[in-house]
Specification:
The complex is a heterodimer. Chain A is of the alpha+beta class. Helix content of chain A is 19%, strand content 16%. Classes of the chains: A alpha+beta, B alpha+beta. Chain B: It comes from Cellulomonas soli.
Chain lengths: 466, 400
């Protein structure tokens, strides 16, 4: 098992999106059942073992393997765009839930390789039926699309009533609830909108083209009608974290580099220690949670920034609050961007150079028992409020091994003490268990060599239902 | 008041049919058998009809028909007798391609292109070998469809008949100033309209004359129909009327509005009772989907009955209309795609049960403004759950 980041594969061997099945099968030989050369490119291909810097020229054509020990979209070099959707199940049938996950998995396996959602594609098939793919990505390259699935706490134990009555275990999964899938506490200054929080299932679609990401979620939600409905969605742009050493650290809407101290895809040991759920965690649970081994937890927080007041703030205060310089992103204790902050260094007045209430200090591993996260956040701008202020900020996404140790303590400290909180408001929240990947070579392929859904098709989270 | 559903259609015992309509999601291959999901190409030219292969294994086949000629063309798959049409695509313009997806049993067929859409077509024999894949037995589709059409037309006439009777009573009460009686008749009468609305829509201008909401009105256009009267019976406050005090209709305006309602409804009655009125199977199937679209865009949002809030009557009636449309077609669907038939039955039942939580025609429904967001979302989800499989109905019925 390797923890190296996914290596993008060029689009040369994979069929172009929208390529007809006729083309896949070789013109005029439509009846020779069998796997067409190239049709299965990207399936069963093992993850790359070395980080491959994405060449900008080939970025649109790149695909990441869907199968592997872990789901794609975690250590994958962060793409530029996000469309994340949380779903609520409308059924109480375990069978229907499994059926949905099976269909979703096949569809995700197809879409991430630049294939259409269904076998016919957007412009063919029965003329009196709606096309089995919505079509808006027909002429677009795969754009490095990844689709990552997760399960919310409510899937296991339902949603408690406001009066404290426990929720319902609709699918017989309560005894499989992993210990880390807690109800997040109320953090100081939280202003959470229930309509932007939680959910039974989550789908994170990331791509370098927003239309490709939206197309993926749209087709998955269509496949869910009758089983699940969208609870909330979030569009994001301009990734705010670097998840690979090959990537430059991007900037958040405060104009600061964000994600300098992120766990990188190349840090195998750190990934094992901080990101992937080890078998020993299941052993420590009172429930049977071994199904999550090799997976992770996804924390999602919609953090609105009051950017108008921030923009009126002096550069001195901006840097003091963050604890880094605005241009280089170097810690105020000196050096360059990737210099470790010296939290003990003091200035002429004897005060720490990195202020005691600065974001960098309070989020630093040494302040948080050495824990680290793999952050994969995105900026968002969702129109404006009635006062003419942008509804904008950071859609914080982080993958962690255990939210109880790797997120809750840190966020409690930040929400209480971080000087940056003056300019922040948490308006949405979700915590999801992200199962391990679908094994290489396990996808069921149809006659045309592309993934198809059968009773034997594998699905994300299969171990949970075993 | 009881509402008639068409009697179950007697099934005709049949000869073994050749083609079944296609499920959009072909069943996975049974072990040991390789399902035919074969793709064949057809090139239609002025004097040629080149099919990429002369035989194929039984199962689901897709003929990708490309018109490489300069005239509009058609492509037919004919039975062994060369007469019976198994499946067809029509009106393929020069340079265009169209898929014909069909499930075929083993046997001998003919392929035929008709460039210029005349003559017997350019024919070639086509053999379907036995792949071992089950292609389900079907009813005699042609007879079933004819029975469905007759049954549906009878239903439409019945509903429109009830509609004109109710409308006359309602209009009389309203014109006479008996608002209480008019209000009590409003929703129950509209039920007959909402059940067959796609038929009314097929007559173009009648639908807007009878059922236009104020929000749909073009600037300066004259408003008539049900919702004009609705607003006058449930008069809004200035706050709910865009900040302008509502001006009630005068006695003359009332009479005119009532007369219009009866006049236009009578035109609908005359149209559906005309000698040549038919409603074909594909129209029935599309109508079922349209009724659910109506629910999804207008009823679930509470926009249809913005003054009276009687949306649930309309909602129930739309669903019933769709259900009847499906039921007359059910024998065809059961034969062609039993899984789809099961899905539709399940989802209709689920939606009916959900609506029953909010009332009934007999006891009345709650007004739509009393539903909370969660209840509305629950209804919307049930509508989506039914609409998705319902969107496959037309293709299943027409077989292509």
């Amino acid at each position: 098992m390797t923890d190296a980041p996914d290596a993008p594969t060029g689009g040369a061997g994979a069929p172009a999106r929208g390529m007809s099945r006729r083309a896949l099968l070789g013109l005029g030989t439509g009846l020779t059942a069998g796997i067409a050369a190239g049709a299965a490119a990207g399936f069963g291909v093992g993850r790359g073992t070395a980080p491959t810097p994405a060449a900008t020229s080939a970025i649109g054509a790149s695909t990441y393997p869907f199968t592997g020990p872990h789901q794609a979209g975690i250590v994958t070099p962060a793409q530029d765009r996000l469309y994340l959707a949380a779903f609520d199940l409308t059924t109480d049938s375990r069978e229907e839930l499994v059926d949905l996950l099976r269909r979703w998995t096949t569809m995700a396996a197809r879409l991430t390789q630049g294939l259409s959602a269904g076998p016919f594609g957007p412009a063919s098939g029965p003329y009196d039926a709606p096309p089995d793919d919505t079509g808006e990505a027909a002429d677009l390259p795969p754009a490095g699309l990844t689709i990552t699935f997760g399960f919310g706490r409510s899937l296991f134990v339902g949603t408690p009533s406001p009066d404290g009555t426990p929720g319902t275990d609709r699918f017989g999964l309560a005894d499989r609830l992993p210990g880390g899938l807690v109800e997040l506490p109320h953090f100081p200054q939280d202003a959470l909108d229930p309509a932007r929080s939680d959910g039974d299932l989550v789908v994170q679609a990331c791509a370098d083209d927003p239309q490709v990401a939206v197309h993926a979620v749209r087709n998955l939600s269509r496949a869910a009608f009758g089983t699940a409905t969208i609870r909330w969605t979030q569009l994001g742009y301009g990734r705010t974290s670097s998840t690979s050493t090959a990537q430059k650290t991007p900037r958040n809407l405060f104009g600061f580099k964000d994600g300098t101290a992120n766990v990188k895809a190349e840090e195998s040991a750190a990934l094992d220690e901080h990101i992937w759920v080890p078998a020993s965690d299941a052993a420590a649970d009172t429930t049977d949670s071994a199904w999550l081994t090799g997976g992770s937890y996804l924390v999602a927080r919609r953090i609105r920034m009051t950017i108008e007041t921030w923009d009126r703030t002096s550069l001195r205060e901006q840097e003091a609050v963050v604890g880094r310089t605005k241009g280089e992103g170097a810690p105020l204790s000196g050096g360059t961007e990737h210099t470790e902050p010296d939290l003990t260094a003091t200035g002429g007045d004897g005060a720490p150079l990195v202020a005691v209430d600065s974001h960098v200090r309070l989020a630093h591993p040494t302040t948080n028992d050495g824990v680290r996260m793999l952050r994969r956040g995105y900026n968002f701008t969702d129109g404006n409020d009635s006062l003419g202020r942008l509804d904008a900020g950071l859609f914080f996404l982080a993958f962690v091994r255990d939210p109880r140790t790797h997120y809750v303590p840190m966020q409690t400290t930040l929400s209480r003490d971080d000087a940056l909180m003056e300019y922040l408001q948490h308006t949405g929240s979700g915590l999801f268990a992200v199962p391990a990947g679908v094994p290489d070579g396990s996808l069921v392929l149809g006659d045309d060599g592309t993934p198809t859904t059968s009773d034997d098709s594998p699905f994300v989270g299969q171990a949970l239902f075993a | 008041m009881s509402f008639r559903r068409p009697a179950a259609l007697a099934l005709v015992a049949l000869t073994l049919p050749l083609a079944a309509c296609v499920a959009n999601d072909p069943a996975p291959a049974q072990s040991g058998a390789s399902a035919g999901t074969g793709v064949l190409t057809v090139s239609s030219t002025a004097d040629g009809c080149t099919v990429s292969a002369a035989e194929a294994p039984s199962g689901t086949l897709t003929f990708q028909v490309a018109n490489d000629g300069s005239d509009v063309t058609e492509f037919y798959l004919l039975a062994e007798d060369g007469l019976q049409v198994v499946a067809e695509v029509e009106n393929v313009g020069p340079g265009l391609s169209r898929d014909l997806v069909v499930q075929l049993r083993p046997g001998t067929y003919w392929t035929a292109c008709k460039p210029g859409m005349v003559g017997d077509g350019i024919r070639e024999a086509f053999t379907v070998t036995d792949s071992g894949v089950e292609v389900g037995p079907t009813g005699d589709t042609a007879d079933q469809l004819a029975a469905a059409e007759a049954s549906y037309v009878a239903y439409v006439k019945d509903q429109v008949g009830a509609l004109i009777t109710g409308t006359q009573e309602f209009a009389a009460a309203y014109a006479a100033g008996d608002d209480e009686t008019a209000r009590s008749l409003y929703a129950a009468t509209r039920v007959h309209w909402e059940r067959v609305e796609p038929v009314a829509e097929s007559f173009g201008d009648l639908d807007p004359l009878l059922d236009l909401r104020e929000a749909d009105l073009e600037a300066g256009a004259t408003w008539s129909g049900w919702h004009l009267v609705e607003k006058d019976l449930w008069q809004p406050s200035a706050q709910d009327n865009g900040g302008v005090a509502y001006t009630p209709l005068t006695a003359e305006q009332r009479t005119a509005a009532a007369d219009d309602l009866v006049t236009y409804t009578q035109q609908l009655v005359d149209a559906v009772n005309a000698e040549d009125f038919t409603f074909e199977a594909f129209q029935i199937a599309n109508g079922a989907k349209e009724l659910l679209d109506e629910v999804a865009t207008g009823k679930v949002t509470g926009e249809e009955e913005i003054w009276s809030h009687t949306d649930l009557w309309d909602f129930q009636a739309n669903v019933e209309g769709a259900h009847v449309a499906y039921e007359v077609l059910e024998p065809v669907v059961v034969a062609a795609d039993p899984e789809l038939a099961d899905q539709l039955t399940t989802q209709f039942d689920a939606l009916d049960a959900l609506l029953a939580q909010h009332g009934s025609y007999e006891d009345g429904f709650v007004t739509y403004d009393t539903l909370d967001a969660a209840q509305v979302k629950e209804l919307a989800a049930a509508v989506d759950a039914l609409s998705e499989p319902l969107s496959q109905l037309t293709a299943t019925v027409t077989g292509a």
